[in-house]
Amino acid sequence: MTVKENELRIDRLESDVQKIDDRLANLEQLHTDMMARLDIIVKMGRAIIGLIGVGLGIDLGLENVM
Predict the structure, then answer these.
(1) Distance between CA 40 and CA 33 in Å, rounded?
(2) pLDDT tens-place string over residues 22-39
(3) How far apart are CA 44 and CA 66, in angstroms?
């Protein structure tokens, strides 16, 4: 391989690495958003269970949950 061919390969590889880095940053952001949403859903579920338990007069052992 010539020096010119190697330079072209290096340029293409650097471009590929940049694209992968951009995708990874996007996936990290999506993961953070999804985990925040799941956390809210879990907290809402605990609150609903607690309210149902209070309404029915049942002690569900959910101290320190809310």
Answers:
(1) 11
(2) 999 999 999 999 999 999
(3) 9
